[in-house]
Amino acid sequence: MASLDEAQLVGRIARGDRAAFEELYRRTSPWLALRLRRRCADEQLVAEVMQETYLAVWRAGGTFAGDAVGGTAVGWLWTIAARRLVDGFRRQARYAQVRAVAVEPTSAPAAEDDALAREVGGTVGDALRRLAPELRQVLQAMVLDGLSVRETALLLGVPEGTVKTRARRARIAMREALS
Hints:
By secondary structure, the protein is mostly helical.
């Protein structure tokens, strides 16, 4: 198994190979947990997303198109996890709406903003936090998470051209803020 790359492991998983699944999990779970924790401070939600993600990989390994669309198995895995995380945030928001009948709203930074503040500080961090949320999301995905334009587009659910435009606008805004 050690000589196989992640895409080959996913192919074997699609055929029900439990050893390939265990190897993919061993290789990718520490990385995936770290990426999820950068975007969410709730350990319970991260654990749920990890479980849902790997369950989806086991069930839907055959849907990975791989090199045919220019994606990587790790990018595919991250896309699944990111969507599960968004679903988790939505579940939490619905639950919070039901509970918050007469609770006065408070202002708290988002988990992503907390992670960003820990990761990038000083002048650069201040400039990043002043960016419009959609520009900051693109920079986070492409720079901090190391995703390609295609993977970022899949993650954010926007066309690739939109990702490129937002990345350009974000670079210009950062350059102006830092000069």
